[in-house]
Structures are given as structure tokens and as C-alpha cells.
Amino acid sequence: MIQLKNGDQIKAMMAAGRITGEALLRARDHVREGVSTYELDRVVRESIEKAGAKPSFLGYAGFPASACISINDEVIHGIPSRKRFLQEGDIVKIDVGAFYKGFHGDSARTIPVGKVSEEALRLIQVTRDSFFAGLEMLKVGNRLGDIGAAIDTLVRHNGFSTVKRYVGHGVGHELHESPDVPNYGTPGRGPRLCAGMTLAIEPMVNIGREDVRELDDGWTVKTLDGSLSAHYENSVALTSDGVINLTGIDPSF
Ligand code: MG
Ligand code: MG
User: Fold this and answer.
1) Distance (Å, rounded) from C-alpha 128 to C-alpha 81?
2) Is 110 within the bounds of a domain?
């Protein structure tokens, strides 16, 4: 069942979203060659805890860290490590959740490490653009399939592919709520969008094929063909007055 939120609940989700978004901004400020993914995770955790919140991912289904940190052909769910260091030319995905006063925020960004290839920059830009193409369809009376169709269409027009195996989701009291929010779909199909819906829209986009595989660590998901992958996620709310980007606190990021 889709849990609709009232005005007070959406206000509380704005607070959780702000803490989530701030943690991502702090992590971005630490992205440079030579930094370990463990260090980025520490920055995320400290930022969330200083705000009086809890990292949503820590201990979730046994996940051992506060952020998922995935590099290059890793799509999502990378585990931070003291032995993994960023290198010039990498693209790093940081996915963060914060739980505050009963609600979760969930947000991810892909960040270049130093100078990266033109193609990597284009991948990051297209992935971000596809999120906003999807967000534009988040309107009372539209259907869920309109969001995924807009994302997938923009991605395919740019020659990339959208990961189908993993999807966005409702977000609120639980980190993952109903409904699933696929990054593909048929316009005019799926549940009707209505005021009070809070969703994590999160395109995952590969330069190559859409196929992915999970590593033996039980978490890390990689592209099957080894091509680069990017991820862009915000938690958003649909209200009768329009859309609130709960985690997107810096419009340029
Ligand atoms: Mg996330
Ligand atoms: Mg999510």
C-alpha cells in the first residue's frame, strides 16, 4: 500500500531530506585522488550524527556502513573500505540516507575525481538530466509509468542504457516503501500520482548494456560489460501545491 503523507509529515521529511543532502555535500567536498572510500563514509556518518539523525543504511539488511560508495563500473551498493582509494579519472557514486524524527531521506550523486573523460562527464550529465525529466512528470493525475518512460527515453536518446534490475521506491517511515519507481515504463500506465506521495527517484545509467551482476560480497552491483555507470537520486514529495525536492538542497548539485 502506498503511504500518503500529510503536511506535517512532509515537513518532517524536509528536515530528514536536508540532513541527507548536507551529508552528500560534505562528502563531495572530500572527493579527491588518494581519499579512501572509508574516509568518505566517515564524513557522511559524522555529518548525519552531528545533525542529531541516524544513518539509514548502517545495519540495513546488515549493510556495514553509512554510505554506499561505488566506483566506475560499480553501479550501486559499494561497501566503503580503508583499502580502496579514489584515483584521478574515476567517477564515484555516493548514496546516503538519514533517519530523523521518524522519516528517512535517500539521495545519491555521481562525482568526478579530478579530470575525467568527456564520455564520463556526459554520462553524469545525462543521468542527472534524466532524473529531472522524470521529475517533470511528477504531477497530480499523471501515472507512475510517465516518470519511468521520461527517464528511459532521455537516456536512450543519448545512446546509454537504464538499469532495469534495480528501481526507485517510495520513502518515508521506511527507507523502502511502496511503490516501486522503475526507470522505465509506459506512459499512462501504473498507479495514479496523487498529493502526499513521497518517492525516491533514482536513475542508474550505463554507458554500455543495461545488464548488471552482484559481486560475491553480497552487495556491490557492477555492470556486466564493465562499462561506466552513473546514479542520481533525490527523495521528492508531491503536494497539491507542486513538487518539493526534499534532498536536493543545492540546485547546482
Ligand atoms: Mg539511495
Ligand atoms: Mg533509494
Assistant:
1) 26
2) yes
